[in-house]
């Protein structure tokens, strides 16, 4: 029937082409028939003829495809797409701005992507991040260029780049040396934990996060409490006190940048996000002043910041791009930690029995007036399990890789030149891994099955070449922050006039998430805190 209609339209066009201009209804009819033919071929006929190709999620507008949806609530869209394919967990494709993305949700397939780093390249995604954060084309070329052997003759080159790697790899190595277990990690962790420890006391419990203050109790915003204390501790550990002199409101500006950083991650022009644009101008000025200050005056500077700053200069990157790079690595150091701390605290407070159990377990790590991170890590299995269960429920990050050569995965052929997308949230809610309680918060889940933390279906820190080196520090920060708070304060949820407590915060899925999202902008977790008599 459709072929007959197309044949008649074609013959009509040959006999009188002007009809399609003079009679727009005829043109509309022909275009409508062509559109129906395209849709039926794309989503009904082609999948039957080519079963080895990952099937496409149907869309209505050619080229544009699912672009609008993927830049909004992509988590719900991917979940609906899995339902559309009856949750067989085989690769399927989505269309975004003319590009094809293969969505990978099977844990075994995800492991394959991470292991085969030459077939599934991370470089393209990283280059997009560099562009989004504002590095120039020349700076990005410098970032990936491997120096010639003759360029490594200087003593500085032998120290900063002893293995003749490109700048990106040099920075990656610096972060691994800083953040993987060892003396440098211990020093950085102790500094951050010390700052957090000093902030969580009744005498210091004041600031923008305090909503109401009474004689013996205060109401605080958990969202702002986590943001302010963790960001302040992180930036002081990395840059010392000097950067606060260059921009006294730097914590406020970093909060704004964190809320809007999705624009950088997904390549959206920041000029169209006014709050981000203005915050970035202030942050650029502060970091620029900082890197132009002689090293001798940058007291309290973290080892990794000094190493990265020296490397950027050594490779000859322009000043604007050096500022952008430092801001990007600074943002990565606190962004997901802030959100994860908020959700961990939220889940614990909403489960009073768990809160009491965690108090009992973690008290020895806090009772001497300092935070004993080693004790929390090695002798607090319930805290460890709660931490992992919270990450399982809240992780919304995606991993993206470029397919460098044709490859078969789950009997589906992935074509070179396209990209694969790994939605971590779907891994963490897969019933085949987590059972019928996949959507429930079970703080003892990892306590009962300790091997779950290394399961291929649990990927809160990514994997492969992009496996987050900061995972040890993040855990120490979050567990130390929460353990100190619940041991030093009685924490309750205020109720309204009807005796009802506030609803549990809802995660913000209204905009793209580069990692762990906070709650909706108009939501928060309000806490009533009073000093504990047993442990102040």
TrEMBL record:
Record's keyword annotation contains Heme: yes
InterPro entries: CYP450_sterol_14alpha_dmase, Cyt_P450, Cyt_P450_E_grp-IV, Cyt_P450_sf
Keywords: Heme, Iron, Metal-binding
Domain of life: Eukaryota
GO molecular function: heme binding; iron ion binding; oxidoreductase activity, acting on paired donors, with incorporation or reduction of molecular oxygen; steroid hydroxylase activity
Binding site for heme: 468
Pfam hit, one: p450
Obligatory cofactor(s): heme
SUPFAM superfamilies found in the cross-reference section: Cytochrome P450
Family stated for the protein in its record: Belongs to the cytochrome P450 family.
Protein's recorded name: Cytochrome P450
């Amino acid at each position: 029937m459709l072929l007959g209609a197309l044949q008649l339209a074609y013959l009509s066009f040959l006999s009188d082409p002007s009809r399609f201009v003079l009679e727009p209804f005829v043109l509309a009819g022909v275009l409508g028939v062509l559109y129906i033919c395209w849709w039926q071929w794309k989503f009904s006929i082609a999948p039957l003829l080519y079963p080895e190709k990952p099937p496409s999620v149907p869309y209505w507008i050619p080229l544009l495809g699912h672009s609008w949806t993927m830049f909004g609530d992509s988590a719900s869209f991917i979940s609906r797409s899995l339902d559309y394919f009856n949750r067989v967990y085989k690769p399927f494709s989505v269309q975004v701005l003319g590009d094809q993305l293969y969505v990978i949700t099977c844990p075994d397939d995800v492991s394959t992507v991470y292991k085969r780093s030459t077939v599934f390249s991370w470089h393209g995604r990283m280059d997009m991040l560099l562009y989004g954060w504002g590095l120039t084309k020349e700076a990005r070329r410098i970032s990936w260029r491997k120096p010639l052997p003759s360029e490594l003759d200087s003593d500085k080159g032998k120290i900063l780049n002893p293995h003749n790697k490109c700048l990106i790899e040099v920075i990656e190595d610096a972060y691994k040396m800083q953040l993987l277990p060892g003396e440098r990690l211990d020093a950085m962790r102790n500094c951050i934990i010390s700052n957090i420890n000093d902030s969580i006391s009744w005498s210091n419990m004041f600031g923008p996060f305090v909503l109401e203050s009474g004689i013996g109790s205060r109401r605080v915003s958990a969202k702002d409490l986590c943001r302010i204390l963790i960001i302040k501790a992180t930036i002081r550990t990395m840059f010392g006190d000097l950067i606060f002199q260059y921009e006294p409101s730097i914590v406020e500006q970093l909060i704004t940048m964190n809320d809007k950083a999705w624009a950088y991650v997904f390549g959206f022009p920041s000029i169209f996000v006014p709050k981000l644009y203005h915050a970035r101008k202030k942050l650029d000025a502060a970091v620029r002043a900082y890197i132009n200050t002689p090293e001798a005056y940058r007291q309290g500077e973290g080892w990794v910041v000094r190493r990265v700053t020296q490397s950027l200069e050594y490779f000859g990157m322009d000043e604007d791009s050096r500022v952008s790079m430092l801001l990007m690595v600074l943002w990565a150091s606190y962004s997901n930690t802030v959100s994860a701390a908020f959700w961990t605290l939220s889940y614990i407070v909403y489960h009073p029995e768990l809160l009491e159990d965690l108090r009992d377990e973690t008290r020895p790590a806090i009772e001497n007036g300092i935070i004993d991170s080693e004790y929390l890590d090695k002798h607090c299995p319930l805290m460890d399990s709660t931490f992992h269960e919270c990450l399982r429920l809240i992780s919304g990050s995606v991993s993206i890789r470029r397919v460098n050569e044709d490859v078969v995965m789950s009997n589906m052929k992935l074509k070179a030149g396209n990209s694969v997308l790994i939605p971590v949230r779907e891994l963490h809610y897969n019933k085949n891994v987590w059972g019928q309680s996949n959507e429930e918060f079970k703080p003892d889940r990892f306590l009962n099955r300790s091997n779950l933390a290394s399961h291929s279906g649990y990927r809160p820190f990514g994997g492969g070449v992009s496996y987050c080196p900061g995972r040890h520090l993040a855990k120490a920060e979050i567990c130390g922050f929460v353990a100190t708070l619940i041991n030093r304060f009685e924490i309750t949820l205020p109720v309204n006039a009807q005796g009802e407590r506030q609803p549990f915060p809802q995660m913000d899925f209204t905009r793209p998430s580069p990692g762990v999202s906070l709650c909706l902008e108009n939501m928060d977790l309000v806490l009533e805190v009073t000093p504990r008599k047993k442990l102040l």
